Amino acid sequence: MSKLANKVAVVTGASKGIGAAVAKALAAEGAAVVVNYSNSKTGADAVVDAITDAGGKAVAVRGDVSKLADAQAIVDRAIEHFGRLDIVVNNAGVYELASIEDVTEEGFHQQFNVNVLGTLLVTQAAIEHLVGGGSIINVSSAASRAALARTAVYAGTKGAIDSITGVLSRELGSRHIRVNSINPSIVLTEGTHTAGIVGSDLDALVLSQTPLGHLGQPDDIAAVAVFLASDDARWITGDNVRVGGGFR
């Protein structure tokens, strides 16, 4: 039997990149998946089509995770479509690289609202449905500890996610809800290409400090998400799992 048979998952920010790979990987192991998106309906529909073409179950649901009503609606759609909820992957995120001189109020609030508040709001909406236990997986970043230049705000959001993960693992443990984070290094996605990270000095620096000698692919992260969502990780909670070829 598949590892996630009869489970239902919500994956936020799943229209591309890591989120899309996670959604497809969870579905391949038997989960029905809510593919959340904020702007790219085309991308989310393509992920749903890939899942259903492979025999899985999925639905695309629009919603801005930083808005309370939207976060609640994303979870409500999971219950409406599939009748239950077992797995939440808080993947939706934005980033902007900027030196301290270039940090703006707008950039600060956008990153903290989506990356941090969005994680809290979706989790808040989900926990009443994780009856008898479930798995919450927060997508953080190696940037939370790496102290890379020009990442003060973004790294701050991911440091917050690491702390929230630990706090919620204790707060929700009595309900048998596990809470972990995945902390990737640079992953080759549409987003890292568009942002100019791939091929940049930052890219070269991270690669030079990566023992396995190459950057990540979305599927590298998705495989870890499947593990954390499954009963194979039943005794793991409150962990920040580094996935970055050894980058520290």
UniProtKB/TrEMBL annotation:
A single Gene Ontology MF term assigned here is: oxidoreductase activity
> In its keyword annotation, does this UniProt entry include Oxidoreductase?
yes
Query: Which InterPro entries does this entry report, sorted A to Z?
Result: KR_dom, NAD(P)-bd_dom_sf, Sc_DH/Rdtase_CS, SDR_fam
Could you list this entry's UniProt keywords, alphabetically sorted.
Oxidoreductase
- One Pfam entry for this protein is adh_short_C2
Q: Where is the Ketoreductase domain?
A: 7-170
Return the SMART domains for the record. Answer: PKS_KR
- NCBIfam families, per the entry: PRK07231.1
- PANTHER family per record: OXIDOREDUCTASE, SHORT-CHAIN DEHYDROGENASE/REDUCTASE FAMILY (AFU_ORTHOLOGUE AFUA_5G02870), SHORT-CHAIN DEHYDROGENASE_REDUCTASE FAMILY PROTEIN
Name the family. Answer: Belongs to the short-chain dehydrogenases/reductases (SDR) family.
The name of this protein is 3-oxoacyl-ACP reductase
Q: Which organism is it from?
A: Trinickia symbiotica
